[in-house]
Request: fold
Amino acid sequence: MSAEATNPEARPEALPELRRRGRTRLDLRRLGRAALLGPTPRDRLPDAIGHVAEAHRAHHPDADLSVLRRAYLLAETSHRGQMRKSGEPYITHPLAVTLILAELGAETTTLTASLLHDTVEDTDVTLDQVREEFGDEVCFIVDGVTKVEKIDYGAAAEPETFRKMLVATGNDVRVMSIKLADRLHNMRTLGVMRPEKQARIAKVTRDVLIPLAERLGVQALKTELEDLVFAILHPEEYEHTRALIAAHAGERDPLPAIADSVRAVLREAGIAAEVVVRPRHFVSVHRISLKRGELRGSDFGRLLVLVGENADCYAVLGELHTCFTPVISEFKDFIASPKFNLYQSLHTAFATPEGYVAEVIVRTWQMHRVAEAGVVALGNPYTGPPAADQIAAADCEEERVDPTRPGWLSRLLDWQQSAPDPDTFWNVLRSELAQDREITVFRADGGTLGLPAGASCIDAAYAQYGEAAHGCIGARVNGRLTSLSSRLADGDTVQLLLAHDASSGPTADWLDHAKTPAARIAVSSWLEAHPDGARPADAAPRAPLSVIGLRSGGGNAVADLPDATVRLAGCCTPVPPDAVEGFVVRGGAVTVHRVHCATVAQMRAVGRTPVAVHWRATADCRVTLLAESFGRPHLLADLTEAIAREGVEVVSATVEPPVEQRVRHSYTLQLPDATGLPALMRAMRDVPGVYDVSRA
Reply:
């Protein structure tokens, strides 16, 4: 349906080697409808699969086509006599699906499984036969695409089928590649079905398949699926957009002339590049019309500039911004900051002297291949680590490699285990796929977490700790204490603070801030299991609590004044081996301060003369520590116990009233050995609920 908008002959989908071969790009829609069988000698590839072989060899010149021949013969034999609702022989469907994938550059194993993807589901062929004939890899992919039996699952068959496919995709992404191509061909031929069934299939495609195509980077499939869904679910808007495109076809298009100007600029700068006009598809035209209102000639397409190296992309950008008037608000650098679906390009726009605004996409040929075909072009990313020479080659080409598993897929596979109910799984899946952006945050231990945009510290806690995050009591973001409801931004560093006592658990308001399905399912499950809650109500305001020990002392500092009484200052509580200074105060006593204490500067400012002070050989000392924590029962007892385990005596302790569930403790302690101070502070920080311990 979107042929008028996309004009496949004008789109530079083929790679440079295809252009050198002079090969005309195949029309997938025409071949998908007209892959007729006819009599074919069994000693050569049938004509119907000849198109697939030609497309496959264009991307993989050395591919072994014998396995495709065997797969086609098994599929054709097993589907013989079956007809599609359109009246065509059923074999035209797996052929069309396989041709779509071949055009995108899929490798031989994917095409083999694609030819067989309906045999186990719709014929007498078994998985054991597929495994025996084509191996475990093809068998796994075919099994992943095969629907579950409706007789076993009833109304839950569709959600459970998608669950099965997603789990299989976690092990081999080619499962979902075949499903996307399968849905595209089914959507192309959906006109023979009843309107209500068309609408139901289109809605599932919109809510699940299109977001999956976007996340897997298969833009070539995503854009056509969007157009087909648009035509079914929004027929009036579709017809309006169709009329706009038809009207534009009869007018002068300014983009070819603008493309000529860009070619001249790049040629003069010595940059080897191919510049083509890329028409917008229907949904893109509809969106731009909503954004800009009345459309002009340059709004119906964009310029695509293809170069050889990453550096050339920025060279092109520099020339465009130098020779034309750039629209700065339209600039986006997806090369330095790629999208989570592997997409890389530079986006910009410039104004021409005639008043047109031309949007431009700049990318390398490799980026273009990945942008159009996504994971389909990358083959199977789960075959193990690349060899050293492959890594070196990748470094030289400066191109991204596919990760072993995208972060969004790992999250999806994790939370689906906690959603055994098909309705819950189905609803949460569509909600999860509606998140179209992803951020990366850094953990305190140096690891990373991939989260959807808008995620909070609660989401980060469950992503990192699973059910242990029930005890999360706070977080530090970029070193600053913050609430669990705080939203995270791309590049933030988050340190999550956990309490390990049984009284800790989430509250109902966590659901207002949890964005990921894993967090929402975990919090909901905990609240259902603890209907009365477990966290105590906020304590009423109270006066500071003081605990006074039985001992006081002046520490082990010695002043260079005969018979002088020495006291350690309470404002900074110096301990060995701190650098210290003393000052004589009223009564002839010498008060000892750390040299960086604010009181030292004040004493010097009023003309007081410092007294030299040194530490005795004995190692005992007195120090004041401040402990900051979240309020909870028995916290003071736990802190006192931790201090006692270190062999330290409490001289005095003060606990301030809680403010926003945060409590501040002040301890004056007598240490038997000053070298034990770091270990003491670590022991106090390890007490659940304590997030900071510092010297007074």
Q: What stands out?
A: The chain has 28 helices and 21 strands.
